[in-house]
Amino acid sequence: MSGLAIVETPSPNFNARDAEISMIVLHYTGMRTAQEALDRLCDPVAEVSAHYLIDEDGTIHRLVAEDKRAWHAGKSHWRDFPNVNSASIGIELVNPGHEHGYRNFPDAQMGSLIPLVAEIKARYGITRGNVVGHSDVAPARKEDPGELFNWHALARLRLALPRPTRNLVDPGWSDAGFMLALQRFGYDIDDGPAAVTAFQRRFRPEMVDGEIDRECCCLLLALLLPQPQGDD
């Protein structure tokens, strides 16, 4: 991996893939310290892992080789992928999460994440729409990396979809119409309010209330257009 210093911290928690790599899933650890998170991700009893963990100081740990299936997403779904683990690279970001004092992701951490995502994305030809958060692929269960994660830092480098900012038009959808469009975009809508909340965490983090409104409709319509309508 060119230019990135990687600390090898092997986890035994992996198995063989049964799909080609086509996604990157970002997480926060949701634990009080990096060591606590590493201990859990490397504990065979826990049966969880990720390919990479990035500490708040920017240190990158490789836990599982990319050609192996890490156990990071759990029960999940995105677009045509009912088993996200098999098709994805999982990256954990050290952050205490909503349960233990959720906070911003430091510049040093983002400074390591950005080139790592860029290399992985280029290596496998991953589209921007398939660089997602854990809450995107498991909205009923997860809320990470959450509303404080700086998606814009990735989007401005074309590493993730931008928040739409241009040509916003109200499509006039009913709530049911919005949910169908949300499913078309990629979300599992079995739990409707959770899916709306996950969409807001990702694309309107300043107001996450789980309620469908005109702004949500405008943002989603723009995301469904052939060219993303954001500052990218």
Task: Tell me what the structure shows.
It is built from nine helices and eight strands. With 232 residues, it is of the alpha/beta class. The strands form two sheets. Strands 1-5-4-7-3-8 form a six-stranded mixed beta sheet. Strands 2-6 form a two-stranded antiparallel sheet. It is globular. The chain starts with 5 loop residues before the first strand and ends in an 8-residue tail after the last helix. The model has no long low-confidence stretch (mean pLDDT 95).
Short description:
The protein is 33% helix and 13% strand.
Sheet/helix structural class:
alpha/beta
Beta-strand content bin? 5-15%
The total beta strand count reads 8
Terminal Cα separation, in Å? Answer: 26 Å
Overall average pLDDT: 95
The number of helical runs is: 9
Low-confidence stretches: none
The biggest beta sheet reads:
6 strands, mixed
Q: H/E order of the elements?
A: EEEHEEEHEHHEHHHHH
| Strands in their spatial order, largest beta sheet | 1-5-4-7-3-8
Shape: globular
What is the rounded Rg? 17 Å
Q: Roughly what percent helix?
A: 25-40%
What does the secondary structure layout of this molecule look like, with pairings?
Elements: E1 6-8, E2 14-16, E3 23-28, H1 34-41, E4 52-54, E5 60-62, E6 68-70, H2 84-87, E7 88-93, H3 97-100, H4 107-124, E8 131-133, H5 134-137, H6 151-155, H7 175-185, H8 192-203, H9 214-224
Parallel strand pairs: 1-5, 3-7, 3-8, 4-7
Antiparallel strand pairs: 2-6, 4-5
Helix pairs in contact: 7-9
